[in-house]
Amino acid sequence: MSDLRVDLLGQVLPGPVIAASGTFGYGIEYSEILDLGVLGGVSSKGLTLNPKYGNEGERLLETPSGLINSIGLQNPGVRHFIENELPAMRRALAGTGTAILANLGGGCIEDYEEGCELLCATDVDFIELNISCPNVKHGGIAYGVQAESAKEVVGRVRKVCTKPLIVKMSPQAEDIARMAAACVEAGADAVSLVNTFQACAIDLEKRKPVFNNIFAGLSGPAVRPIALRMVWQAVGAVGNAVPVIGLGGIATGEDALQFIMAGATAVQVGTANFADPAACQRITAEMDAWMDKHGVKSLDEIRGCAR
Ligand SMILES: Cc1cc2nc3c(=O)[nH]c(=O)nc-3n(C[C@H](O)[C@H](O)[C@H](O)COP(=O)(O)O)c2cc1C
Asked: Which domains does the chain have, with CATH numbers?
């Protein structure tokens, strides 16, 4: 058995694999399928200050080695989460060191701030700020595209955030290294990347786009090499200052180890949970098996070794 524990901003996580937002519910149901105690953390479904019904029309489409989703951040809102889902999450994770990440989205800065304040008054371990959301007051361009816009939202949230703040970056960023640096300058304690890649599909029979919003988010193994390149770049830009959490298309232990060797502190697993509900536990075991076979005793021995 290798030592798979990860120190993330002073909190020791039992493992390097965190279940990614939107792909693992609140983790509660999964306690019957896998041992949540081997996971580093569970990132909640993306929360917004007020409940959201999500998008109309098609929401999911399978593509070669990938998935396109247009869920539209359907969620019960921060207050409902705090009163209902969070206590159940805590019960499901009791006695484990598995962290709770509250993934927070928003359409305007004020909503991000208020949502963050409410979440910081609870016992969640980390705030994961999703800046892929469209800025409704500024033409709908996502906060995570331009470094200046990200800097503004991260800086404002930082002022009210009393928890460790992880900023989850979008692969749509104009320049991923500059974006990572801007988030850290604005006060991010860590960055996670990547969110989904903007994609499109056309329904031939209808002669129309499959998704009402035309574009939707691509994830899964199809994106992994690009995600890995972006994680490499983010580590190069900010890896000396803050932890970088890598994700995008990880489906096996060997995939996860590539992100660690690129310099990621920990990884997240999303789409793989749909094909294999026990993916996070399996991937952790596969990482362990590879490390055992190669005489690697801890992740620190190989983190960033490919650079
Ligand atoms: C159905 C679905 C819903 C998602 N919902 C969220 C969300 O609410 N908040 C968020 O930050 N990311 C969300 N994501 C993005 C994932 O957390 C992850 O960043 C992305 O899918 C890339 O990782 P993967 O290839 O392992 O899935 C969602 C992804 C999928 C597939």
From this structure: 6-56+73-198+219-301 (3.20.20.70)
